[in-house]
Amino acid sequence: MLNYKNPHEKDAYGQELVINLYGCSLRKISSQRAIRTFVITLCDEVIHMKRYGEPLIPHFGHDNPITLGYSVVQLIETSSVTGHFSEYKKSAYINIFSCAWYDMEATAQFCQEFFEAKRIDVTLLKRP
Prior knowledge:
Elements: E1 14-22, H1 26-29, H2 32-46, E2 59-60, E3 69-76, E4 79-86, E5 91-98, H3 104-114, E6 119-127
Antiparallel strand pairs: 1-5, 1-6, 2-3, 3-4, 4-5
């Protein structure tokens, strides 16, 4: 699933997991409450990162149906979790950047299951 197989290199600064989810539940990606539950559960129970403040979850892109949807930003002590949700495309685009390591496979699986996505593309970027 991941395109980088050794994320634990000692010289790495961190990692960024880029997750594209397709065929998502419209009910979940168009719900501010569901997105809030997602990001809090992701941080607290999946990647085990300390959240810094509350998540920001504005609704953007009203001039273009493709970009219409929620975005989320959650700062964590080791960096950030961001997400953008297209109601038109029933897709979610999630980035998790952290200087602390976490289980990428479990994280990707959680995201896919939470949003009930039919398809997932995952890329891991090493930050040297």
